[in-house]
Amino acid sequence: MKKLIILSIGLLLAACQKHVEPPPPPRPALVVIAGESAANNAMVLVGEVKSRYESNQSFRIGGKIIERKVEVGSQVKKGQVLARLDATDTNLSAQAASADVRAAEASYGLAQAEVERQRTLFNKKFISASALDMREAELKTSAARLQQVKAQAAVSGNQSRYTALIADRDGVVTQIHAEPGQVVEVGAMIAQIVDTKQIEVLVAVPESKMAKLKVGDKVAVKLWADRAKTYLGHVREVAPAADSATRAFDVRVTISDADEAVKLGMTAGVRFAQDEVNEIMIPSTALTQINGKNTVWVIDKNNIANPREVTTGQFTEAGVVIKSGLQANEMVAIAGVHTLIKNQKVKPQMAESK
């Protein structure tokens, strides 16, 4: 009986003892070593291909167009006639001005002869000095009148020549805003000529990127129509003031080796090369958020995982730039970061470098 009681007590005590489970093995964790890498802090902006010279051609007088000699796409040379106005009225004005000149010349000649006669009479004491002075004043008036009508005749002659619209540069016609029979005002644009030999890209640069941008900086240009080819260029002009609507600065970039593939109006990407800087970049999969803050899991020398808040920079195809919160040569987890626990022991496995 005593043996039975002792055996029962032993079994009861054995049942009351807590079973101690062995600690789980360290969890495998895919990690990388954060390191500094030289990154080109380049700025890429999109712009429009334009000509350096875009000249709006217009008549210097108003009138009715009777002829237009070019079409959109026409190649023109400097001095070539683009259009003509009806010159009937201007020719009549020029003829009237020429007649006025001839009349003024006759009046001047008569006044000059009269002065010579009056001087002869004055020398012989036949007339008074005041009579001579009167004739000399008439001569001066005739001379001034002659100069006036000659100037008016020159203006009338210019008006006659202005009935022909002459190209002021070599180029191609890109716009036309008038047709034969149309009455146009002074200065109204008839056609636009652009110089296809000097091609640029117009880009709008944000004010935050203007600090290091200057005239002469080298750039690389790629057309959206053909991203395989890169053109060389440089910054030719930087606007001194920002656009009032966009608050960006207009920058013109000259393409040094433009070919026939570069067409006006195309979209182009411009890469502004800037100084290389050392920065810490990690794979984007290493970044997570805890309580709305960007966080990475850092593995210490004892293989313990702990979260750490970081400040991120630019996101690229290669990863994300860490501005602060992480030092070079620290180990960070890049897979399963959403399931890690603070102070969890892990078994680091280095990721293969690509």
Q: Beta-sheet strand percentage?
A: 35-45%
Name the average pLDDT.
Answer: 86
**Would you count the extended β strands for me?**
24
Radius of gyration: 44 Å
CATH topology-level fold name of the domain at 27-41 and 277-350:
conserved putative lor/sdh protein from methanococcus maripaludis s2 fold
CATH second-level architecture of the domain at 27-41 and 277-350: Beta Barrel
Order of helices and strands: HEEEEEEEHHEEEEEEEEEEEEEEEEE
Can you count the helices? 3
Query: Strand count, sense and closure of the main sheet?
Result: 6 strands, antiparallel, barrel
End-to-end distance: 76 Å
Family: Belongs to the membrane fusion protein (MFP) (TC 8.A.1) family.
Pfam family, one: Beta-barrel_RND_2
GO molecular function: efflux transmembrane transporter activity
Domain CusB-like beta-barrel: 202-275
